[in-house]
Task: structure prediction
Amino acid sequence: IESGEPYRISDLKINGSDLISIGFKGKEIQNELELLIAQVSGNPNCNVREKLLVFAQRDFEDIKKSLSRYKSKNFDKKVKKHLDELIDLGLISKDSEGKFSLISSLT
Result:
């Protein structure tokens, strides 16, 4: 490792608090910090606060786009269809509160 080259998360010019302000939560913070250290390792010129914030913001937007695909109405309809099929097969039941219970084990 060259002198001054970042190789630990603590060497980054941003930290978890910066990522929280962007919108990262929980394990996403650690994952993003590890991704950023991988990006700047071998290229210490990228370990600049403003650059890292841009990288992190881009990554956060990518995560949000990916999650939005799963929250679409089409996805909800598919899940409901599969749950209805499981009810019809007698494998699960749904109570008056909308909670599902396993009736039969799949063995």
